[in-house]
Amino acid sequence: MKSYYLIIIVLILSCSKDETNVITDSKNFISSVDLSSLPQIEAVNTVFYNLNNQEEDVLTTLRNSGVNTIRLRLWNNPSNIHSSFEEVKAFSQRIKAKGLKVWISVHYSDTWADPGNQVTPITWQGATFNVIKDKVYDYTKNIMLEIQPDFIQIGNEINSGFLFPYGNMNSNEANFLDLLSIGVKAVRDNSSSTKIIMHYAGLDGSDWFFNKLNTINYDIIGLSYYPIWHGKNLNQLQSTIVSLGTTYNKEVIIAETAYPFTLQWNDFTNNIVGLEEQLILPDYPATPQGQKDYLAKMKEIIVSTNTSIGFCYWEGAFVSFQDSNATNGSPWENQAVYDFENKALPVLNEFNIN
Questions:
Q1: Distance between CA 318 and CA 83 in Å, rounded?
Q2: pTM given for the model
Q3: Which among 42, 78, 176, 189 counts the fewest CB atoms within 10 Å?
Q4: Residues 272, 314: contact at Cβ < 8 Å?
Q5: Is 102 helix (H, G, I), strand (E, B) or coil?
Q6: How far apart are CA 155 and CA 207, in angstroms?
Q7: What is the mean pLDDT of residues 336-350?
Q8: Cα-Cα end-to-end distance for the chain
Q9: pLDDT per residue over 255-304, tens digit each?
């Protein structure tokens, strides 16, 4: 009889352990998709279909698939309305109305900000450093008051700094850290719940970078990971997540990732990924199943680390939305979570975290 009870106890403990290994706290796990281009795509009456091939709003399809957070980029004064404050604010309200959380990636630029581009907004250029600090504070404060995001990035892929030349990390590290601190202060002064993300592109050099941020009061380490740019070693991805989370006592998120379901194209705009040599082969071919398996692997890595809290799939609805001959359409349609007929792909099943 004692042996019988002992076996039962072991089985219960074993089941409990397996269950916690799946996801320790699913309500805090971030299952996210970046939809920054969706308002532009919707403006030309693009129709999307869910996994049952029924016409459905993208936000509804994603929410029903397990997505709980939508990421949006914010440009300061872009050349048109897209990614502008007005568009992002309005879209954020739609997102919240669907019961989803909002994650804002603040580029602190009028256009794309990334490791190779961190151009100060035109109307800020030429100002003194003290004026720039005031502008960063006021601009960030306005985001907090008007949009009230659940998550916010102070800069996008800031490997070498942001707001060049003021916040160029390589030429003036002290100023860079000062600007980061000002942005963080604007968030903390106006919200007790918004989580602050510091976003680095890639794996190499990430420890060096986050070591520099020891004086910054942020919450989450964000990493971009794309095989085309950041290597195909998934063991390195896993070990980097563990190392960063442990070393800096921070939660870690894969802030951007994506993978193609085909190497074909649906317009005449050059796609960013289009060659087999850019893939992780043979495990993850450019097929709907290969795309699904890739994201399943990302989720497996995240869950196994105990330091990472989720992932974001970049521009999941960036389908071809103009004429099929357009040379200024989407460079990403083969990495969307919708196929060339705008039907939801099997990869959406991997966003469910329960």
A1: 14
A2: 0.92
A3: 189
A4: no
A5: strand
A6: 18
A7: 98
A8: 36
A9: 999 999 999 999 999 999 999 999 999 999 999 999 999 999 999 999 99
* AA identity, residue 95: I
Mean pLDDT of 334-351: 98
Name residue, tokens 């961190």: 118
Any residues with CB less than 8 A from the CB of 162 and at least 6 apart, and which? Answer: 108, 109, 113, 118, 155, 156, 176, 179
The two structure tokens encoding residue 35: 């939809």
Is 80 exceeded by the pLDDT of residue 6? no
Residue 200 has what DSSP assignment? E
**Residue 169: φ, ψ to 5°:** -65, -30
Q: How many whole angstroms separate alpha carbon 121 and alpha carbon 78?
A: 9
**Residue 197 contacts by C-beta under 8 Å, 6 or more apart in sequence?**
103, 151, 152, 153, 154, 218, 219, 220, 221, 222, 253, 255
4 has pLDDT over 70? no
Nearest to 185 by CA among 246, 141, 237, 250: 141
Q: For residue 293, what are its two tokens?
A: 């398996």
- Both tokens of 97, joined, read 């109305």
CA distance 272 to 194: 33
Domain 26-351: which topology?
TIM Barrel (3.20.20)
Question: Hey, what are 126's tokens?
Answer: 């030429």
The continuous run of DSSP H or E covering 208 comes out as helix 206-212
Backbone angles phi, psi at 228, to 5 degrees: -65, -30
Residue (of 342, 328, 232) closest to 278 by Cα position: 232
Length reported for the chain: 354
| CA–CA distance, 157 with 202 (Å, rounded to integer) | 9
